Amino acid sequence: MEVQGPQVSGAARGPVRWHCSMSLDGYVAGPNDDMSFLEHVTGDESIIDRYVEETGAIIAGRRSYDAYAEDPSMKPYGGSWSGRQFVLTHHPEDARPVEGWTVLGGTLAQAVDTALDAARGKAVEIHSANIASQAIDAGLVDEIHVHIAPVILGQGVRFFDRPGPGPQVLLERVGAARPSDEVDLIFTPRR
Length: 191
Fold this sequence. Notes:
Blueprint: E1 2-4, E2 16-23, E3 27-29, H1 45-54, E4 55-60, H2 62-70, E5 84-88, E6 101-104, H3 108-119, E7 123-127, H4 129-137, E8 143-149, E9 157-158
Parallel strand pairs: 1-6, 2-7, 2-8, 4-5, 4-7, 5-6
Antiparallel strand pairs: 3-9
């Protein structure tokens, strides 16, 4: 583990993306950051291969970092991805050392800047609902990639949760003929 401050960039930069899976009712994790709801979800493996190739750095939050410190087998994309991993925390001084991670204690904008430099033109992925919500409000997110899991959790970590009032965040669907069209999904409960 190393503790690092902001850096200045001079290289071409990739996008900053929030990439996550979400339950149909808007949760990206269950209670206590439990991700076991994804164990029963299948997907297109070529999509994972694409993210592994496109991602140059990851920014995570302190809860994810601490969970990884407890269980180092929890690796992005099942261990098929390698690159720089950063944790943004208000308390870098008490972060346990974890191999392959850099602890950042500055501002969110500084953390994004540092990760963009480390990504070397590839995407920076945010793996934290809290940090992603702040980054969206700060105008630091270029893309949102969300995979909707066919499950209703009912509780847990919300996809986007703002502690107070704020403006709506209008989105456009990439690749859609009409970018403001809603997405239609049809599911049936498993019995």
